[in-house]
Predict the structure.
Amino acid sequence: MTTVVSSDGRRLTLGSTLGKGGEGAVHHIVEAPDLAAKIYNPGKAKERRDKVAAMVSGRLNDKSTYVAFPIDTLKSPSGEFLGFTMKKVAGFKSVHDLYGPGSRKTEFPTADSQFLLRAAINLANAVASIHATGCVIGDINHSGILVSNKALVTLIDSDSFQYRVSSDTYRCLVGVAEYTPPELQGASFSKIDRTPNHDNFGLAVLLFQLLFLGRHPFAGKYLGKGDMDIKTAIKDGRFAYSSRKAETMMEAPPFVPALGDYGEDTLEVISISQPPPSSKLSCLSGLIRLLMTSN
Ligand SMILES: Nc1ncnc2c1ncn2[C@@H]1O[C@H](COP(=O)(O)OP(=O)(O)OP(=O)(O)O)[C@@H](O)[C@H]1O
Ligand SMILES: [Mg+2]
């Protein structure tokens, strides 16, 4: 049994593993069933120590209910920084399981289009609330976003978020190309400050995937010569559902909802621009009302 020590000197016992990533492992805590402990892999803790301490003292966990933010730092009995506590997220599944039609059947068997829209609204709300804390997600992607069977949304891996406090910016050092805006494709993330608007591109991709059977908005049939990968399509602005087909040289894949099925306003918001999450929110709320009255 591994013993860790909280900032007030309380000794806590690490239980079984809830999950593992590339940076550390997340455990149950025997004495605190509502909390989880993230313990960094050897060598990783040192570089995260100041960032996690800043997130704890900024009380980010009190500022957004949509995120498992660090609550307290954890040390070894000899005083070495090991990781942090956060709320335990139980009964949630990856947003990827929801937007993929195959996995949706098994993981979210009762989810209909209204459920997808509620999840989309909650996700937009979550991103807005994260931006209000002074954080930028940076590495927005499907594996850090969890959805409950009530379409509630929670983000994990918050210690990778960019966090700016007074003159210090703790950057997000990673990113997934499919959710990265055109201007950051190929960029070296350790050298740049991310903005909320960068997140909004990733958010728009996720909203699109939720409403379009998991399809990526920049994946389609390329009408030019050779292959077109998603990174290049994003960089070149080749939105696969665009009416400017002569310009984008892209055709939407078959058997997906048509853009018009969701209404012009919605599609303009989720596909073309990078508006603030709040405007996505009002737009999607309008759409939900429409669907509810037409059913
Ligand atoms: N608050 C939590 N409650 C329950 N399980 C969690 C929680 N946070 C993380 N997990 C589980 O632990 C796994 C690893 O967590 P996390 O993504 O934070 O690790 P990481 O090492 O930083 O990953 P990455 O290499 O993607 O950055 C998650 O995929 C999830 O299964
Ligand atoms: Mg991480």
About this structure: Confidence is low (pLDDT under 50) at residues 291-295. Residues 246 and 283 are 29 Å apart (CA to CA).
